[in-house]
Amino acid sequence: MGIADDAVEVRAQGWRTLAALHDFIETALERALTREAGLSVVEYTVLDALDRQDGWHMRMQQLARASALSPSATTRLVNRLEERGLLTRVDCLDDRRGIYTELTGGGHALLDQARPVHDAALAGALDEAHGIPELAPLLDALPQLALAAR
């Protein structure tokens, strides 16, 4: 195996570790949010993204990017959340083709209930993952990565 092959394997191993950490955390979040708030992780992500707009709404394509979903998956998810009364669609006054999405009062209330569940599950998953030798180095690197991203 040459140096280039070694470098590829190191990157591949890093990617596998990152994917394992993501799966570990997402599984913990999914269990807690489903059990205690009746939301999936992606539903929580959408409600949270809309809430972070500080009273504004988001276009569907912005919401798709924020939730890492395809446009069609975002539309299906928005339909489900709208049927549950958690969000609503608003026509864009500047562009007749544009549709905005925003939280309803019920969406805000459920998000307020779900946020502490999410935060506690995330903290617990990170603590538990830190005890897994393969994941601990990545967790140790997260503070430096967060500082570098600023």
TrEMBL record:
SUPFAM superfamilies, alphabetized: Winged helix' DNA-binding domain (SSF46785)
Ranges for domain HTH marR-type: 11-147
Pfam family, any one: MarR_2
Matches recorded under InterPro entries: HTH_MarR-typ, MarR/SlyA-like, WH-like_DNA-bd_sf, WH_DNA-bd_sf
One example of a Gene Ontology biological process annotation: response to stress
Superkingdom of origin organism: Bacteria
Gene Ontology MF term list: DNA-binding transcription factor activity
Protein's UniProt name: MarR family transcriptional regulator
Natural source organism: Leifsonia sp. NPDC080035
